[in-house]
Design goal:
Layout (H helix, E strand, L loop, with lengths): L6 H23 L5 H20 L5 H21 L4 H33 L5 H30 L1 E8 L2 E10 L13 E5 H4 L5 H12 L15 E8 L2 E10 L2 E6 L2 E6 L2 E5 L11 E4 L4
Helix pairs in contact: 1-2, 1-4, 1-5, 2-3, 3-4, 4-5
Length: 289
């Protein structure tokens, strides 16, 4: 039995699918390209798919070359322009990967859709599966992007005071604008439980009492008293407040391939938990990068 393919339906289906693929590529790669250019590129891709359909005698390797390099490359140039060979081939690889990934999702959803509703596989079924597949890929993209952005802001930090050192994971937060009012130094925020690990014996007990009491001043004795600082802050739901702070000897933050060392940094002590999933226990100012 021969299958009947209507060229106009085939062109329209490819136009819609190409628009979805190029929109995903623009979102993933953060490319600049208007919807009008994406539509023009999708028309080019749909015409290329119809051209391939009219010449079924071409070999498999010729079809792959023409599809991914000829049609795919042409769509990228029309939609986003040319910005160097390196970026062009990177976008081409991404488009190929998205095409294969979305194709797998569409095939799976089409089989499930036709199996459940006892329908024949046609253009409408493929369109519905493609739309659902695109929604799935966008959801995954948001999850992965959020995870990647969070991971890129995390760094290893070591705090030093007297003969003790405490490792901790810090989070670079551009919204942390806290400053010590006297010196103007940026302030790091640290969970109380981690902060207390810097001390031992009676000093630790005194420091724990100081943090527990509502009084802002506390006699810790020398040489600790002169290190006490009060850090003003503003937050949603509370106009103003004070965090109890302390100057430690130094801290070292590992950021990529470089180490950033601060001497006598000001640490504001937070009595609660900074991260619900415990992925970090210290907040650093974004200016530290």
């Amino acid at each position: 039995m021969k299958a009947v393919i209507y060229l106009d339906s085939y062109f329209f289906m490819n136009l819609v699918l190409n628009s979805m693929l190029l929109s995903l590529l623009r979102r993933i790669r953060r490319l600049k390209g208007s919807m009008l250019r994406i539509l023009a590129a999708s028309v080019f891709g749909g015409a290329g798919a119809c051209f391939l359909l009219l010449y079924p005698s071409w070999g498999i390797f010729m079809k792959i070359f023409f599809t991914y390099l000829g049609i795919g490359g042409g769509m990228i140039l029309i939609a986003f322009g040319f910005h160097g060979r390196k970026k062009f081939f990177q976008n081409l690889c991404w488009l190929t990967g998205i095409t294969i990934g979305l194709g797998g999702i569409v095939q799976f959803l089409t089989e499930q859709y036709t199996g459940v509703f006892y329908l024949e596989t046609g253009e409408s079924t493929v369109m519905i599966a493609a739309a659902a597949g695109t929604a799935v890929m966008i959801w995954l993209l948001k999850k992965l992007t959020g995870w990647a952005e969070k991971e890129s802001c995390l760094c290893s930090v070591t705090l030093f005071f007297e003969d003790r050192s405490v490792p901790v994971i810090g989070y670079l937060d551009s919204g942390n604008l806290l400053k010590e009012p006297v010196s103007g130094k940026p302030v790091m925020v640290l969970e109380e439980s981690v902060f207390l690990e810097l001390f031992k014996g009676q000093v630790r007990e005194k420091m724990a009492l100081y943090l527990e009491k509502e009084e802002m001043q506390w006699d810790l004795g020398e040489p600790y008293a002169e290190r006490i600082r009060l850090v003003p802050y503003k937050s949603i739901g509370r106009k103003r407040g004070l965090l109890k702070g302390f100057i430690i000897d130094r801290m070292v933050a590992v950021m990529g391939e470089k180490d950033v060392e601060l001497v006598r940094p000001v640490i504001a002590v937070y009595p609660g938990v900074l991260s619900s999933d415990q992925s970090y226990r210290m907040i650093l100012p974004g200016t530290l990068q």
